[in-house]
Design a protein that fits this description.
It contains ten helices and nine strands. By secondary structure, the chain is an alpha/beta fold.
Length: about 220
């Protein structure tokens, strides 16, 4: 799995396009790009965009009764989906350093992304099973479970973490195989929700929802 910082990537792409068209101009400075990302993440716009992405899920959940929810499931990614790691991301200047990330997980400091927690609770109240499928590794299971419960997620049906020796370049096949295993247990996955294309690729879900994440990309 490759994790790439992409803060301000859209601005940089726009600059390259302009430069290619012959409009010479200085590239945006990195501190300014990072400040733009921080302003977005800390503004009401970010939560509003998350809620907008989740609107079809909430509308569908309202139509479910106990009978129609039986045997259905929702799959959630964790980081920047169920939980926000923004504190860690900003503290590292929107970069990534493995030892610091592992220590931050051990501290169990991630907080719930509130619109996702609301959808989670509504799904559970209607009898839908919820599974977490994350790119975190198996060695972080105890800390991840504790952090999820601390943030308000309780009574989930399963938590899939990558094997500690996973070395594939993309996380997408691993996540798709986890969803296939959930289906093999007899569940119909109505919704698969994540913040990366790699969270959603590979099928095994009737509907996918991509949440905004301008900070990093996971292949």
């Amino acid at each position: 799995m490759r994790r790439r910082a992409i803060a301000g990537a859209g601005i940089l792409v726009a600059w390259l396009v302009l430069a290619g068209c012959g409009h010479l101009m200085a590239p945006p400075d990195l501190p300014a790009v990072k400040a733009d990302v921080a302003r977005y993440m800390e503004s009401p716009a970010y939560e509003r965009d998350v809620r907008r992405a989740l609107r079809p899920v909430r509308q569908a959940l309202r139509r479910l009764d106990a009978a129609s929810a039986t045997g259905t499931a929702m799959v959630l990614d964790i980081d920047e989906t169920a939980l926000s790691t923004y504190e860690y991301q900003k503290g590292l200047g929107f970069g990534h350093y493995g030892p610091a990330w592992h220590e931050w997980q051990r501290q169990r400091r991630a907080v719930a992304l509130e619109p996702v927690l609301e959808v989670y609770r509504e799904a559970r109240a209607r009898g839908m099973a919820v599974f977490f499928v994350t790119g975190r590794r198996e060695r972080s299971r105890a800390d991840t479970e504790a952090n999820l419960r601390q943030a308000g997620y309780e009574d989930w049906s399963g938590l899939w973490l990558k094997p500690d020796d996973h070395r594939e370049p993309s996380v997408a096949p691993y996540k798709a195989s986890c969803r296939a295993q959930i289906e093999a247990q007899g569940y119909r996955i109505l919704f698969n929700i994540g913040d990366q294309d790699s969270d959603l690729a590979g099928g095994h879900a009737e509907h996918t929802v991509r949440l905004p994440n301008p900070i990093y990309r996971v292949e």
